[in-house]
Amino acid sequence: MKLSSPAALRIAIVVGAVVMLEVICRLGLVKPINLIPPSAMVARLLDLVREAKFWSEVGATVHNIAFAALAAWTVGFCAGVVLHGMPRLRRVVEPLIASYYALPFFVFYPLAVVMLGMSSLPIIVMAALFAVVSMISSTMIGLDRIPGVLHKSSRTFHLGKIRNALLIQLPATLPDLFAGAKLSLGYCISGVIGSEFILSDRGVGYSIAYAYNDFDSRTMYAYLLFVLLLVAIVLSAANWLERRLRYRIGSNWAITPTLLRAPKLPVRLGETALLVVVLLAVWQLVFIIAGNEAVASPLMTAERLPRLLSSRQFWGHAAETGRALGFALLISWIGGGLLGVVLGASARASDVAEPMVIALQSTPKVTLYPVMLLFFGLGIAAKVAFGVIHGIIPMTLFTMNAIRNVNPALLRTARALRLTRVQTASTILVPAVTPEIVTAVRLSFSITLLGVIVGELFASQRGLGFLIMNSIALNDVTTIMAVTTLVVAFALAVNATLRGVDRRVREGGQPQDAVPDSMLISDRVTT
Amino acid sequence: MSAVTVSSVRTGDRQSVSFDVPGLVARDITKRFDGLHALGPVDLELNTGEFFSVVGPSGCGKTTLLDVIAGLTLPTTGHVALDGVPVRGDVPEGVGIVFQDDASFPWLSVWDNIAFGLRRQGVKGQNLHQRVDYAVDFMGLKGFARARPAQLSGGMRQRVCIARTLVMKPRLILLDEPFGALDQQTRLLMGDELLRLWRETGATVLLITHSLDEAAMLSDRIGVMSARPGRFIGMLDTGWPRGRDSRIATHPDFGRVTAELWERLRGESMKAMKGGGA
Questions:
Q1: What's the confidence (pLDDT) of residue A82?
Q2: What is the tens place of the pLDDT at every residue in A148-187?
Q3: Position B260 pLDDT exceeds 50
Q4: How many angstroms away from the CA of B240 is the closest CA of chain A?
Q5: Is residue A32 reached through a cis peptide bond, with omega within 30 degrees of 0 on the bond before it?
Q6: Into which CATH architecture does domain A296-511 fall?
Q7: SS3 sequence, chain B?
Q8: Taking CB atoms and an 8 Å cutoff, what residues of chain B touch A147?
């Protein structure tokens, strides 16, 4: 490795950051209760690994991750194959898949606990549900990618259905299946540790929350370090395997979804209505099975909504969440945008930065909330900061790549036309990067909302997340459902609007809609 | 060497031709996609062992015609028969197809790609190795037998696909722009290989190509298609001897063949262009 290679620079940056942290802490510039030197984190972790209790917590978390991942892989693969084979059904559920990761997912966790009790089960179910859609998407994309000419070839060799599946379709989709499995694993890790962290009595996430509540910063940071190391090792191994697989298989086929032609408006409305009815029916079924102790029926929830919406208390909480979200978005969009422009303008800077930004994205940030609380206190600032660490990353990444990937021929054309710098920026650069920026704004919105809500769920005194947790304490299931429904509706509505803008600015360009969000940002987004 | 003979297509005596003849017979083939009249009506007869090429403007339905003949798609009207056996929506045994697009299996090595079809036929052991090794060799892929398609250039990948089909010694070889991804010199050499193989195996060949030179160099007979919906508007006998190779391009009649093809095709290509064809 050359000393000036991007990899060497990255190592230098990480080592430099660690050394700087060490110096800042040793000089007493931050209070030891807020941050401890990296060397002390390592020392505490080395103590911890000698304790049986540590391994019992790790064991619980690994057990949950393993079961959740197995469930997500199996169900996701089967569902992906079925949906791919039934284009009509696929079209009906497409909106659900497209907006799945726009949901502030952890908002459902308290519900899962109420329904399934405080055990491993709600954690596994949550994590599996969180992860399953990325596996479904990857499976469908993998099958979409198989070029028509391969199907024709399969027929010239007289392969039957089964041999075609085993000899052509399976190997051809393998890279995407692997990417999906990796992505799902990331979601499972986040889902499990995040759920444990919000509400549970065992596991690594629980231990972090416990240490935080116990003012034991040393132990908290040691566990955080462990999580970072675990994620780094697991994802590096997965990335290495994936690179090998891509190298061996190396398919670079375009995605051609077997979606049917866009239906007429009445058909589309009918299909959407059908989807809503089915979802409501499932909800009602869950209510019938679980009983009104655990779940409120759709009707009960609908009846609660007007009362909730007319209460001053609700709007106070909504305003608090809205304020936190607004500030967080502003900082994410502007900060991430500027950072992206700066990094994207230099090929070298983006070469060095990209893997680091992606790695940051893959880290389960949910566990970093105590750190925010330590630094910013229990008020709005911590929530904003937590929202920002979520939202700023996709914004930076997308802006950086948008700037970097501007077709050089366009810039040469600008020079050939003797455009000034300002003209080049306004007539070439801005229109060229706009679609990517719009996508970045959309993705960044979803994930910032998730960050803010998670923050409120874990520890806060105001906001919609707090309202949910408070209702759990009061055993008020109907309010939990009503608030959850409103948050989900808000997330979906904003996402749908931004998707509309996204489509409009991409008109005539590549059909970005063919790629669901979870694949679009590939391994870039995990909370 | 005989001079070029050009004839217009006869369509009147359809009933007089029986399906029960060796070679390929296609009768009254048309194909419509969602109301778009893409092809036909087309009538075609290929004698066993004949090398026949189809030229025509972009989008005239050449590939659709090949798909119908191969049994990959059903015609809207008409029938196809190979050696007296009707072709109905399935690729008949003994038909090998090389597609325009890269159809190499990226998860298999070059060697395993070429062996794929033979293995499906139950060929194994010494016989398999001999045949595949020979194909690897004559396609100029020696040294790349263990490589994956991703490590090869587009042209080399196409050679893998050609080898994978030809190694099975099909009695009817259908080629859809197989040399499109290759450079000019390689095209000429591959053309020679194809001619040699055709002579050795006695297979019937149907080649679809954009290149008038290629059609003129390789074929016994060339069918010229109209703009969409594609129909045959001319048949041209080249009269070349069976033992020909790419050097036939230096023959005094060669220019006359290509000129005749272009004469027939020029108006149709203009139509296709104005009609929004590629």
A1: 94
A2: 888 888 888 888 888 888 888 898 888 889 888 988 998 8
A3: yes
A4: 31
A5: no
A6: Orthogonal Bundle (1.10)
A7: CCCCEEECCCCCCHHHCCCCCCCEEEEEEEEEECCEEEEEEEEEEECCCCEEEEECCCCCCHHHHHHHHHCCCCCCEEEEEECCEECCCCCCCCEEEECCCCCCCCCCCHHHHHHHHHHHCCCCHHHHHHHHHHHHHHCCCCCCCCCCHHHCCHHHHHHHHHHHHHCCCCCEEEEECCCCCCCHHHHHHHHHHHHHHHHHHCCEEEEECCCHHHHHHHCCEEEEECCCCECEEEEEECCCCCCCCHHHHHCHHHHHHHHHHHHHHHHHHHHHHHCCCC
A8: 101-103
Tens digits of residue pLDDT in A328-356: 999 999 999 999 989 888 888 888 888 78
Interface membership of B151 toward A (CB under 8 Å): yes
Residue found under tokens 């290149």: B211
Q: What percent of chain A has pLDDT over 70?
A: 92
DSSP readout, A355-375? HHHHHHHHS-GGGGHHHHHHH
Question: Is A171–B105 a contact, with Cβ atoms under 8 angstroms apart?
Answer: yes
Cα Rg for chain B, rounded, in angstroms?
Answer: 19
Is A155 in Cβ contact with B90 (below 8 Å)?
yes
A31-259, what's its fold? MetI-like fold (1.10.3720)
**Could you tell me if B91 lies within 8 Å of chain A, comparing CB atoms?**
yes
Question: ipTM for the complex?
Answer: 0.76
DSSP state of A61: H
Helix A120-145 and helix A109-116, axial crossing angle in degrees, nearest 10: 120
Helix pair A52-85, A120-145: axis angle to 10 deg:
40
Cα A149 to chain centroid, rounded: 35
**Residue type, position A324, single letter:** A
* B40-64 pLDDT per residue, tens: 798 888 888 899 999 988 888 888 8
- CA of A324: how far to CAs of A106, A368, A382, A491, in Å? 17, 17, 9, 15
| Cβ A230 vs Cβ A205: under 8 Å | no
pLDDT digits (tens, 9 = 90+) for A448-505: 988 888 888 877 788 998 898 888 888 888 888 899 889 888 988 888 888 888 878 7
What is the average pLDDT score of chain A?
A: 84
| pLDDT score recorded for residue A524 | 34
Four-residue CA torsion sign, A10, A16, A17, A19? positive
Closest CA to A519 of A124, A24, A43, A136: A136
Cβ–Cβ gap A156/B150 under 8 Å: no
Of B72, B96, B117, the CB nearest to A152: B72
Chain A neighbors of B150, CB-CB under 8 A: 247-252
> Which one of A145, A156, A170, A247 would you mutate to disrupt binding with B, by most B Cβ within 10 Å of its Cβ?
A156
What size, in residues, is chain A?
Answer: 527
Q: Which two tokens stand for residue A264?
A: 């007429």
One-letter amino acid at B261 equals L
